[in-house]
Each structure stands twice: as C-alpha cells, then as structure tokens.
Amino acid sequence: MVKAILTLGGLGLLFGIFLGVAYRKFAVEKDPKAEEVLAVLPGANCGACGFPGCSGLAEAIAKGEAPANACKAGGASLAEIVAQVMGVEASAEDAKVARLMCRGGEEKAVRRAKYVGLTDCRSAKTVGSGGKACTFGCLGLGNCVRACPFGAMSMGADGLPVINPEICTGCGVCVETCPQGVLSLVPAQNRVFVACSSTAPGREVRKTCQVGCIACRICERTCEHDAIHVENNLAKIDYSKCTNCGRCAEKCPQKIIINETAATDDKQATAI
Amino acid sequence: MGLRTFVGGVHPAPSKGRTGDSPVVTAPLPQKVVIPLAQGGAPCDPLVKVGDKVQVGQKIGESQAFVSAPVHASISGNVTAIEPVACPNGRTSLAVVIESDGNDIWLNTTGGSSLDAMSPADIKGLVREAGLVGMGGAMFPTHVKISPPPGKSFDAVIINGAECEPYLTCDQRLLVEETESIVLGLKAWLKVTGAKKGYIGIEDNKREAIAAIKAAVTEEKDIEVVPLMTKFPQGSEKQLIASILGREVPSGGLPVDAGALVQNVGTTYALSQAITAGKPLVERVVTVTGTPLKKPLNIRTRIGTLFSDLLSFCELDGEIGKLISGGPMMGIAQTRADVPVLKGTSGILVLSPQEARPLPERACIRCGRCVDACPIGLIPTLLDQYCRHEMWEQATQGHVADCIECGSCAYVCPSKRHLVPALRLGKAEVMAQRRRKK
Fold first, then answer.
1. What are the chain A neighbours of B424 within 8 Å (beta carbons)?
2. Does B252 lie in the same domain as B127?
3. Residues B132, B271: one domain?
4. I need a labelling partner for A236 at 20 to 30 A (CA). Which of A82, B50, B105, B238 fits?
C-alpha cells in the first residue's frame, strides 16, 4: 500500500517536474498582438484573405506582413477595430457584397436538355452547360451555396442561389467557386446592377432566356451620368459613376437591371 | 483463345450489326458548313473574311502555336459569317460558316506525290499542312504526336483498328474498303518516325477487316496484323500498347515513353490521301446510327456538316432520347442537333427515349466490380468518394490523374453511380494543382 503510493506519487512528481521544465524551456513565444487580432477576426476561416485561416492572417497582421484591412469578410468596421488593436490608421476598402448576375431561373430560361449527373456545377459545365440553352447563365447546382463560409446563401425555388446581403461579407469565396463566373462582388452602396452575364447577340438571347440582356442600349441612352454602357452585347455599370438613381432599371425592357433600393420591401424576391 | 489483350475492361454489346457490313456512302454536298477554328490544339486565327469566296481545301485558319493544326474549307462557296458556335465536344469555338455555291471547286493543289519521293521532314511538313489531328475523338495535332521529345524515340507504330466503342464502324469500313491506303499510311508513319516495326491491331469480331489487311500485307515483313480480344477499352492507346507490345506506359507518361506511336485508322487514311492526292483533311467517315434512324449508315461527309443534316439523310424517324457525338461509352451527349461534324467526330449515335432513360443513382454497395473493370488498375469506388468530398490529396495518391475516363467502372456499377463525372472532376482539380506547383 505505502509502496504503491510512494511509487505512483514519486512518478507523478517526476513527470510533473519534467513537464514543468519542458514548458519553460520549450515555450513557444506567442505574439500577444496576434492573439488580440485573432480575437476580433470573424473566425470563419473562409480563406478569402489568402492566408491559412484566421490565425494565419492574425499572425501576418501582427508581424506587419498584411494590412489591417486584409480581412475581406470583416469589411470596413472590422478593419477599424483591427487598426485600433494594432495602433495604426484604418484605411478600409469599400464594403462589397456578392451579386448573382443571372435571373434565368427554371421558368425564365429555356431548357434544351435534362441534366443527369453529379450535383456539381463544374461537372454540369462540361456537358452542355447543364442543359440550359443559355451557356452563360447560372447552372443552379449550388456550388456557391455549399462554399459560402458565412451561410449567406441558399437555393431559391427557381433554382437560382439567393444571397442575403445582410449576412454576405463580400469575402468572394462564392465568386471564386462559380465555374460560370455569374457571381461578382459589387460595392455595397451600389444598389443598381445588371443581372445578366450573356454576351450572346440579342437575337440569340431572346431564343434562350426571357430575362437576358439583349444589348438594346436603352439603358445607355437613359443614363444621365454616363455610368452604364453596352460592351460585347452586355450592359455594364461603372460603379464609381452610378448614383443609384434607378432610371435604367425602370426603362430596361428585359427587366434585368435590378434596383434594390426600389425593391427593399420585396427583398426576398429580388435580392439576388 | 490466345488472343492478346489487357487486364480489366468490360464487354458491352457491340451493336455494330446495322452498319458493320454496309459500305461507306458519300453524303450529298451540304448547303452550309460550320468549321470551328479550334480543332486540335490552340485555336486558329481566321485567314478569311466574311464575303470571301473560298475553294475546297483552301486554308481558312492557322495558328503560330506549335500545338495546333490548320483548318481548311471543306466546300466551295462564300464565307457568310465568322462567329462563336457550340461544338459537339462541349466547347464554344469561333467558326467559319460557308454557304455552298454547289460547284465543289477544289483549290488547285500541287497534286499528289509518292511516298518514296518524300523525306521524313517532307512528310512531317505535309502532316501539319494537311491539318491532320487524331481522328478518334481527342483531336490532338498529329505533327506534334510524331515529334518525340528530345532523347526519346519510337520503335513501333500501331494502327488502332480496335474500334472497341459499341455502334461505331467507320474505322472497320475504312480497313475493309481502303486497305491499300491504310497500309501506305502505315508505311509513311514508319518512315517519318524511323520505327522498325508496324502493327495493325484489330478486334477479332471484325473478321472481314482482319482478312482484308492480312491479304494486303503478306509481302510486308515489317508489318504485322494482330487480332485482339473484343473487349472495351481495347482501342485506348495505353491498353493497345499493353496488348500488342506487352509494355506499360508509365503513370503520367505518354506512349512515346513506351516507344510506341499509336495512330487512328481515319488519320492514317487521311495521311495517305494527303500524300497521294494532295488533299488536306476536309472530309471523314462518320458512323450515323441508332434505333430511331431508319437508314443507319457509314457516311463520308465534309468537316463542318451539321449533325441535323446527317440525321435527316439517315431518315430520322421517332423521338430522340439522347444524341451522342461518338460512341455510347465515351461519347459526349449533345443538347442540340445543329452542331458541326469535327475532324474527331467518329460517330453520331441516336438513342431512343427508352434506351436513354436515366436510372436513379444509389449508394455504393462496395461490390468492387468497378475495381475489376478498371483497365488502369484504379479503385474507382474510393476515388469517387474522395472526389465528391474534395479530398484532393487522397485522390492524388489514388492516381486519379491516370484515369482515362473510359467509363468501364460506370458501365458495370450496379448502383449506377456517376463515377466518370466524379473522377473527371478530381482529375481536373489534380491537374490544375500540378500546373500551379510548376
């Protein structure tokens, strides 16, 4: 009995001392700044910054290898906090949100064939764009929804992803994921955008989709701020010039220029 | 049986009965052809403008890139448009649209020559000028294929007459009808590569083709006809080399690493046409078949003819369940019939809605049939899981990049798993990662 207590107690003491010494001797010096920065980062490990997770970015910021506004998901508000922690001047980029540049849902886009295969947009792209007649549009198999690190996306009833702009941080992971390139980051204060990606000529678009840009240039003529131009059969908004007046959206015969300010009441239906 | 073959593979119903014995017929001259400028390697730049008059055999597209083959006008007439079009290989390419003038005027070429009068360099130049590409489907520029990288060389040339894809019979018919040209083409390949020995591998269900070729090469001691076991994918390059030469192409390697050059029957025929008649690659034989067609045929047609024209020529009668460019195992499903015949379009297959009905995908029951079937020796069931869950490291270790996408695994799968798309996804990702590392 006594022997056992002494043996185990002695072993415990021995290992205790060993661990205690090892703890001090092999201590990894952690940058307290990095810990502080890590505490304020979102912690979603989305990877949009290009560093290995939030801890990787925190270390880089603490070492001064990354700017205070490197976290794309956090946006301006986080950049300010990080700048405070680091004691530097905040210089945040404009906050951005992801927008889906396609409205060709089940009932709007013409379907030429039925897609049978993996529920994966990359896979569908290799076989006739998933059966939709328009080869530019959203394939609707939800790679972006699965990739969103913040749960800001969901699949709508019409087979198109719905982005919740309230939750979207503008990290751009979905934009990287989409093989069709129909998602794009738009400055958050810009509420007017062109929801089509088709560069096909107008007559082709009319055959394939009810809500495609036909390059009629009415928007171009309507705009008083020289902010919208049709290039390569597709209307494009210069976000730095756009004033969110929404005249182009009113005039667009195809209703593919979305004015979100006008539709805030009906957000669920149009906020895509 | 003693027939040479490879390990693995499957035995789909050959389904060649309706066209196997029917001689090649020449299609009526199309009213319009659509000739994509990306047919083999880097896309060509157009050499003509809208409104130009062109003649058959006139070069209409060329690229400065080495890995690219020029394209030629396949009918005479006016260029009416140069626009992006959907191609049967799933891509969109800039294409030259030519409306026929109905006269079929050929460009005054230098005429033919003879093989004896040509040096290997002449042949290589001709191969490029004639726009030759692999006509089995991959459309890899042939002049690149016959130029081995420094330090490597070919010691054997194999003519791929296996035609293991069900339904397709165009190579079989060429072997029977154009025997002399194929043998001449093989001699040209031997001359240009300096290889000692030529083989013609033919699956043993094509008796007529074997007999015809055998009769034609009795005098040739450097050429051997090899009957092969009828098994899919016998006509895959690596499997053919394993069957005939008993050599293995190393993982990630090319046939040249095994000293072998494998050439398609159609390409070989096109080469002999280029040598003897000075004709560039402007037409090919396409097998148009399937149950909804009243008159399935092997058709000699111009490159750029629309599928829809050929389907009506074969008297399409009934609903299309699935339209496939190529064969049923490795062909590509089409979403529209107004796509052009490319240099690599070996067949147009129409399945009825009943034949093409999709079967529901079920969970893997781990039976291992796909493992037995894989001719490369991969484990498709595991790779399927890795690729679906984006476990790229494990997929790389499982050699997903060596998958030849033959579809044998999916063919035998009792759960109808979408194995090929999953592995293809993994393959694309692993290849992309490799490129990034370089």
1. 123, 126
2. yes
3. yes
4. B50
Residues of A in contact with B86 (CB under 8 A): 128, 135
A3 domain residue, yes or no: no
| Residues of chain A contacting residue B332, judged by C-beta atoms under 8 Å apart | 127
What's the domain count of chain B?
2
B267/B414 same-domain check: no
Residues A172 and A77 in one domain: no
Structural domain boundaries enclosing B247: 111-277
Residues A174 and A118 in one domain: yes
Closest-CA distance of chain A to residue B420, Å: 10
A56 plus A114 within the same structural domain: no
Judging contacts by C-beta atoms under 8 Å, the chain A residues touching residue B428 are 122
From first to last of its 438 residues, what are the pLDDT tens digits of chain B?
A: 478 899 999 999 999 999 999 999 999 999 999 999 999 889 999 999 999 999 999 999 999 999 999 999 999 999 999 998 889 988 889 999 999 999 899 987 666 788 888 899 999 999 999 999 999 888 999 999 999 999 999 999 999 999 999 999 999 999 999 999 999 999 999 999 999 999 999 999 999 999 999 999 998 889 999 999 999 999 999 999 999 999 999 998 999 999 999 999 999 999 999 999 989 999 999 999 999 999 999 999 999 999 999 999 999 988 999 999 999 999 999 988 999 999 999 999 999 999 999 899 999 999 999 999 999 999 999 999 999 999 999 999 999 999 999 999 999 999 999 999 999 999 999 999 989 887
Shortest distance, CA A146 to any CA of chain B (angstroms): 12
Closest residue of B to A114, CA-based? B335
Q: Nearest C-alpha of chain A: how many angstroms from B249?
A: 27
The reply to whether A111 touches chain B by the CB within 8 Å rule is: no
Query: Do A113 and A239 fall within a single domain?
Result: yes
Q: Is A126 within 8 Å of B421 when comparing Cβ atoms? A: yes
Q: What DSSP character marks residue B211?
A: H
Give CA angle at A247 (A243, A252), nearest 5°: 125
Q: Does A215 lie in the same domain as A102?
A: yes
Judge whether B421 lies within some domain: yes
One domain, residues A107 and A176: yes
Q: Does B335 touch chain A (CB under 8 A)?
A: yes
**Same domain? A53 vs A111:** no
Closest by Cβ to A127, choosing from B90, B92, B428: B90
Domain region containing A62 = 32-86
